[in-house]
Amino acid sequence: MATIKYSSFYKPKSRTRSSPLNPTPVPVPQVTSHSEQQHRDWHNPQINGPEATVMVGCLAAIVAVIGWVVVHRTALTREREARAHSDRRDKEARRAELLSILKRWEGTFMVVLNPTDLAKLYYEGGGMAALSEASARFRGYIADQETFDRLDQEMSRMHPTVLNATGTQAPRDKICDAIRRFCDFIRTA
């Protein structure tokens, strides 16, 4: 129980109680509510110098840790976004490279009319190595790799009997159709 010191000129009345049956006064304890006690302690804290230093140090450490976490998290987010942007640019560059090779092949096959020259160009023209390299580089960015592989097989590994065939659909049209299907798939992938 807290004791209250009064100045010398003010003396409160003694809080006593007497009853008709008991003429001697009985002191009545001074009762304060819990909220009054907290209120009084809050406005008059008894913090000495070393305790204040420790409290300020703890507060500074907490602020420093929170600041480090925020900066670290921001840096990680920035790096993740930069990596995603770089991957998108790389994918678009690979797509453009593969499409340009396919368009060059389609243009080359559209000019050749003789089926023997067409077969010779298809197998020995030298463009198949560049096409397979570009296709392999772009394959990693495709979600539907089964369809990619199937269209790549149809276009780049035609059987010689297909290229030497005659009839309603010339070998040139078969090659160009396979190239167009592959190009359409790559544009949407």
Summary, kept brief:
By secondary structure, the chain is mostly helical. 69% of the residues lie in helices and 2% in strands.
How many β-strand runs? 2
Q: What order do the helices and strands follow?
A: EEHHHHHHH
Strands in their spatial order, largest beta sheet: 1-2
Structural class by sheet pairing and helices: mainly alpha
Helix content: 55-70%
Q: In percent terms, what proportion of residues is strand?
A: under 5%
C-alpha end-to-end distance: 80 Å
Question: How many alpha or pi helices?
Answer: 7
- What shape does the CA trace take? rod-shaped
Q: Spans of 5+ residues with little confidence (pLDDT < 50)?
A: none
Average of the residue pLDDT scores: 78
The profile of the biggest β sheet is: 2 strands, antiparallel
C-alpha Rg (nearest Å): 45 Å
So what's the oligomer here? single chain
Explain how this protein is built:
With 189 residues, the chain is mainly alpha-helical. The protein contains seven helices and two strands; from the N terminus they run ββααααααα. β1 and β2 form a beta hairpin. α2 runs antiparallel to α7, α4 packs antiparallel against α5 and α5 packs antiparallel against α7.
Task: Write a concise keyword list for the protein shown above.
single chain; 189 residues; mainly alpha; two-stranded antiparallel ribbon; 2 strands; rod-shaped
